[in-house]
Amino acid sequence: MWVKKWAADLIREQFGIPNCRSLLRLDKEVRHPGKLPSYETRYFISSLSPDEIKPCDFQKVVRDHWQVETSLHFVKDRWWEEDRHYLERPGLGQVWIALTNAALSVLRLVQIPGEPLTQTAENFHYSPRKALQMLGFSIF
Fold first, then answer.
1. Burial 14-36 (b: 16+ CB within 10 A, else e)
2. Which pLDDT band holds residue 88 (cuts at 50, 70, 90)?
3. pTM confidence score
């Protein structure tokens, strides 16, 4: 990983990104059993100053960013294919996003610690009465 303050100045001035204070480059080696390693390079723009944060702390920031990606967006994209939905009527896209956000929030509220979120969702799917009871609804 490298962090360049001078490159951030250039990006900020030439591309008009006002809060760009540092530019990061992260080189990653990816290994899979039985295959040759591959290499990936990712670039990040940050409003954090390299004078105020160490490179190892930048790595934590990058990992935390990907934690959000894998715990929220991955679920929404894989389960509900949020990125693939094509909604012709204006406003329906926002409604769809609100519904998936609400569904994820409910699942996380009742998720058993250590149980995958997919298992919680399947339990709700196969036993909606139990799910409603867990949420505090009385069932007749």
1. eeeeeebbbbbeeeeeeeeeeee
2. low
3. 0.48
